[in-house]
TrEMBL record:
Organism phylogeny: Eukaryota, Viridiplantae, Streptophyta, Embryophyta, Tracheophyta
UniProt superkingdom: Eukaryota
PANTHER family associated with the record: SERINE/THREONINE-PROTEIN KINASE (PTHR24349)
Boundaries of every Protein kinase domain copy: 9-272
Alphabetical keyword list: ATP-binding, Kinase, Nucleotide-binding, Repeat, Serine/threonine-protein kinase, Transferase
Protein name, entry field: Protein kinase domain-containing protein
Source species of the chain: Dioscorea zingiberensis
Signal peptide range: none
Length: 290
């Protein structure tokens, strides 16, 4: 660990491990406040096009500034072996564990509230020109007040200059088809990923499946999500309509994060169970799935 990090923080128990390093509890020696420190092993950084730790710190700060639904970064340190990012401590669990512990599918009102917070976090990132590029349940963590926070900006990209991106990064189940195809893409890849998260919460299974990454990518390229009656018979037309607008192969027709937030089905958790929702959905000019 960095000498200056150890001078400023008492680094404690291991919380978890990731592709490029580990996360530990740490306590400020000045204030006694609890944080988490993400330590990135430089020896594992074989391709800086795939992951650039200096970019992570910069884009994380930008995305989290004024964004209470993103984990904040408080300090960064570097030594010969590692780069260390001091972050808000969130006791968890992450959304993946939350869904698994409760047993998917979860109720529409709960899914609506979780999705509202997640889309608020994503929209705030996009307003600042930052695309997360790895939205998935494991990167959505509950804080000490029971509210979700988006974490891990290791694969984040920048579009603030009006440009796009081409790097094929992300987690296969949640990658948008334009990423898989190697095309230029923008911030709507996060909306696709969030749609996959919502589909999984409501259906208990991902919309695109395969035994290998190649099989998953083939399924994503086809991009025609279905709503099996056995699984989705209790899911409202409004929820399925929203999914169709988020998991939409045509990028021009896919909702932006801001558009998702304008949909009443997300903003009002009670809406997902309301009788007569089909008519309201038609009035908004959406496609109601049958």
């Amino acid at each position: 660990m960095s000498d200056q990090l150890n001078k400023d923080y008492d680094v404690g128990a291991l919380i978890g491990r990731g592709r490029f390093g580990a996360v530990f509890r740490c306590v400020s020696r000045t204030s006694g406040e609890l944080f988490a420190v993400k330590s990135i092993d430089k020896a594992l950084l074989t391709d800086l096009l795939d992951y650039d730790p200096s970019r992570e710190a910069k884009l994380h700060r930008l995305a989290a500034s004024g964004n209470p639904l993103a984990v904040q970064i408080h300090a960064d340190y570097e030594d010969d072996e590692s780069i260390h990012l001091v972050l808000d401590f969130c006791p968890g669990p992450d959304l993946f564990r939350h869904i698994a512990d409760k047993g998917a599918p979860i109720s529409e009102p709960e899914a609506a509230k979780l999705m509202e917070d997640l889309m608020e976090a994503i929209a705030a990132c996009h307003r600042r020109g930052v695309v997360h590029r790895d939205v998935k349940p494991e990167n959505v963590v509950f804080d000490g007040e029971g509210r979700i926070r988006i974490v891990d900006f290791g694969l984040a990209g920048w579009i603030g200059d009006g440009g796009g991106m081409r790097e094929p990064v992300g987690t296969p189940y949640y990658m948008a088809p334009e990423v898989v195809r190697g095309e230029k893409y923008g911030e709507k890849v996060d909306v696709w990923s969030a749609g996959v998260v919502l589909y999984t919460m409501l259906g208990g299974l991902p919309p695109f499946y395969g035994e290998t990454s190649a099989e998953i990518f083939d399924s994503v390229r086809r991009g025609s999500q279905r709503f099996p009656f056995r699984v989705f018979r209790g899911v409202s037309s409004a929820a399925k309509d929203l999914l169709g607008r988020m998991i939409c192969k045509e990028v021009s027709r896919r909702f932006s994060a801001e558009q998702v937030l304008k949909v009443e089905a997300v903003l009002n958790a009670d809406f997902f169970g309301v009788v007569g929702v089909d008519g309201d959905a038609r009035q908004r000019g959406l496609c109601v799935h049958r």
